[in-house]
Structures are given as C-alpha cells and as structure tokens.
Amino acid sequence: MVGIFLPLGVQDTFFRHVMFMVVLFIILGQAWNLVGGYLGYVSFGHAIFFGIGAYVPTILYRDFGLNPWIGMFLGSCLAVGAAFVIAYPCFRLDLRGHYFAIATLAFAEIVAIAFDNWDYVGAARGILIPLKEDSLLLLQFKDKLPFYYIALAYMVLTILSVGWLLRTKVGYYFQAIRENEEAAQSAGVNTSRYKHIAFYISAFLVAPVGTLFAHYNLYFDPSMVFHFMISTQMVLVALLGGIGTIGGPVVGSCILITFSEYSRSWLGGGGRGLDIIFFGLLLVLITIYQPGGFLSILRRFTPKVTQDESHRA
Fold first, then answer.
1. Which of 82, 192, 226, 267 is the most buried (most CB within 10 A)?
2. Are 210 and 225 in contact (CB under 8 A)?
C-alpha cells in the first residue's frame, strides 16, 4: 500500500525516479535469486537478459513497427534462448561455484563487446526509441509515474509467481540441488533439467525489466544495459537483503539502490566510485558478520516481519 500511494504524495521527480529504480531491482533481485539463491549457482551474466529485453522490442518497434508489448514478450523468449546458449555448455561441463560465475561473466562480456561493435543496433553510439504520443499501448508517457506503476504491477506479479513456484515440487527440487546436488541426484531428481528450468525462468523474468528501462529512458547504449555492474547489483540486492528469501531482494533494493541513486545525485562526477566502495565494504561486513543479510537483522528487532525461513539460504 505504501508503494502505491507514496509517489502520489511526494511530487519530487527524482524521488519518483529512485522509487522506479528500486522496484526494477526488486524484480531483478527476485529473478536472479531463483538461480543464485534457491539453486545455489551464482551468475554474473544476467545483464545479458536485461540487455536483450532492452534491444529486441526497440529494434522491432523502430524497424518493423511492432508493438512494444509484443516485442517485450519476444525479447523474453529470446532471453530464454540466450540462457540456453549459456546454460547448456556450463551445465554439460558441470561447472559449479566460482567456475560457473566466471563462465557467466565471460559470456556477458562477449555479448557486451559484440553489441558495442554492431552497427545495426547502434553500436557504442546507442539507440533512440522513436518518440510518439502518450500511449499505454506504445509504452510512452510524458510523465514518468505510469512507468513506476507498470513496474510495480510486474513486481507484485513476479513476487507472487516466485513464491508460488517455490512451494511446488520444482521449487523444492531447486533447494535440494542447492543443499546437496549429489544427494538430490541420488534421490532421483533430474538435476540437469531443473538447473536449466531455473535459469530459463530467471532469464524470462529479467528481460521485461530491460524493456521498461529502455522505454523509461528513450535512449540506451550497450554500457547502460550490458554493463557488469547490472549483474553485480542484482547479486548485491539479493545478498544484502538476504539471499534465498522472498523478502531479501525487497530489503536489499530499498537500501542499495536508494543509496546508489542519491549518492550519484549528490556527488555527481566527483564521487569517484564512492558508492561502489561503500557497497564493497557493506558486502564484506554482511558476509562476515551477518550472512543472512539485512532481513535477518530486521527479524531480530521486528517480530512481525514475514517469516520465510523455509526459503532461507
């Protein structure tokens, strides 16, 4: 309820922008959490799916006049295809731990470099979304507030979907693989199949966020949507809030993205990565002293915080 009415009560444009970014990264954190939190495979390549979600609907709209909502769905499908290209060799070779993380990072860098030099999609120059009249159908608004409410609706849908999935047989298999993959396989779980399923669902959920981000800005380039920091922030959002929990990405995004956006605004270009230094220190402290993230701290002082112990990492 707070998320619905707060932007209406606060007229500051930048505050609304921050809320929009917070909601986007709650979705991204939830999607990444399926692979990194519940499956136990840390990915640094999820920016690929975010970037595909930005580029595919934009190119289809610019060159073929295809409606952005249809393009969003096609972008999600293509993101699943990209997930297959990454997952098949990684899971076929049984890459785990830091080997899997490095492999996904390598794929992300390859894609970023490819788009940086691909003239058809604008290369490093970036790409502009053709400006049209205000229209929900075309995902264009003079006021940025409608983007926030679209993102908020998608966030609620994502959280409900992930929560439902985790209570099904598939969700339990994910967590069994995380706890002990060999034991799960011995118990008859097709671990390879369910690792693929988790990766594909995660990619499908990430891509529409890229579409919303692109239409929100009306311009983007490869460094904005394929950058390593996009994937890193997804990891940090889940880790700081509480990896392997539904509430973790919510808490983590509210803390990390709010600080990131306001520090960028206050410091401008003179911060010299101060926010990144802060994130690093915060990450080290949380990892050492509070592996359960901020959500576990909140549980100590706020008994009414929703208990989702069955999904804890």
1. 226
2. yes
Enumerate the H helices of the chain as residue ranges. Answer: 2-9, 13-33, 47-64, 68-92, 97-116, 145-166, 169-179, 181-186, 191-217, 222-225, 228-241, 247-267, 274-289, 293-301
Give the separation between CA 38 and CA 16, rounded to whole angstroms.
Answer: 31
99-123: pLDDT as tens digits: 999 999 999 999 999 999 999 999 9
φ, ψ of residue 10 in degrees (nearest 5)? -110, 115
CB-CB neighbours of 158 under 10 Å = 21
Q: Would you state the structure tokens that stand for residue 144, as one six-digit string?
A: 């940025």
- What is the distance of C-alpha 93 from the center of its chain? 26
CA-to-CA separations, 271 to 18, 22, 276, 277, 281, in angstroms, rounded: 18, 21, 10, 10, 16
Q: Are 253 and 199 in contact (CB under 8 A)?
A: no
Do 242 and 251 meet the contact criterion of CB atoms below 8 Å apart? yes
Instruction: Give the Cα separation of 111 and 135 in Å (integer).
Output: 32
Cα–Cα distance measured from residue 313 to residue 250, given in angstroms and rounded to the nearest whole number: 16
Contacts of 211 (CB under 8 A, 6+ apart): 53, 54, 57, 68, 71, 72, 75, 139
CA–CA gap between residue 289 and residue 292 (Å, rounded): 9
- Cα dist from 163 to 33, 76, 170, 279, 295, whole Å: 12, 20, 12, 28, 17
User: Could you tell me how many residues make up the chain?
Assistant: 313
* CA dist., res. 145 & res. 11, Å (int): 10
Distance (Å, whole) CA 76 – CA 122: 21
| Residue 143 CB neighbour total at 10 angstroms | 10
Give the residue from 198, 244, 183, 223 showing the smallest Cα distance to 29: 244
